[in-house]
Give the backbone structure.
Amino acid sequence: MKSFFFHLMPYGALDLSYADKYNSAWATLPNSYFDAKLGRSYYERYIGELTLADELGFDGICVNEHHQTAYGLMPAPNLIAAALTRTTKQAKIAVLGRALPLVHSPVAIAEELAMLDQMSGGRIIAGFVRGVGSEYYANAINPTHSHTRFYEAHDLILRAWKEPGPFPYRGRHFEFEYVNLWPKPLQTPHPPVWLPSQGSSETVEWGAAPERKYTYLQTFSPLPMAKKAFDYYREVAERSGYTAQPSQLGWAVPMYVAETDEIARREAKPHIEAFFTKFLRMPVEMRLPPGYSSVASIKSLIEQRYKIRSAATTLETLMDFGMVVCGSPATVRQRLAAIQKDLGVGTLIAMLQVATLPADLTEKNLHLFAAEVMPFLRELGADAPMAKESAVA
């Protein structure tokens, strides 16, 4: 199993009493809560933590895109990825992900990721998402167009990467007289595409289709929901005539490792709980704006995810639901081995910094995970050997 370090770059100095006045840390929280003098120090620290993960031998490091929120200070993840191409040497750089329905030029996204792939020596992974509901308010995008904008932008980006230009493009949402990428990506035919999601059946089915076979990542989910999504991916693959491999499945989870279980829980507890109760706080009308999700997806989310999330407000309950892994190296190894066996995943997206977790504890977490957990994980979740094809005379 491969290990990636995922960083949200949160505003760690957030005054958590904001919840007494405001119902969300997204879009409507006044930016007077942001101290501009601290901003530079956070970017310097967080880029340093991602660089440290590269030095410690992580298989990859992850950045992502969020807008107008204390939850993550990366409205332009391409800028952070560009910095990482200069400070890192071997780790894959996964941009998880660009919110395609929010952009006005998919060709610009194709150009940016092609540049990053060249600058990194072919280390870029392109993660494509629809973006969370509140970001449609923040970007003034009609959420009822979310799916169609996503699919059209995705198709145009891949065509721009693969097809010689110039060529014209006329679509429902986008129109270009010339599509002619300079530069093209270093990886051929293009960087790997990953799909982070919270369990939408439509996303799983689309990503598992034989013409794509994208790596699917399940995020912030109770274990039963994650297993349901991964099992469905495998089911779609079987219906399509192939067997899904562990490398096509990834699981993202906040994690904390310390010397003992007791120390780990004590050190992680306030920061994990702040993450789930304050940084993720969002009213349902902002989380699921009209038209953003299908009726089936909304029904599933309300019945499963949000019901559980509303009950999981302490570190202990979050651990019980499998939404957090926390403990000594031995405990974490044992827990991850059991989860990998149950879920069948080949990639762990380890969120080793969340919310208000300070620099010293983040570095400790990174070092202990890399030294005491990561080597053990390499023996788990390998792809099955592929059958040799008969030679053609």
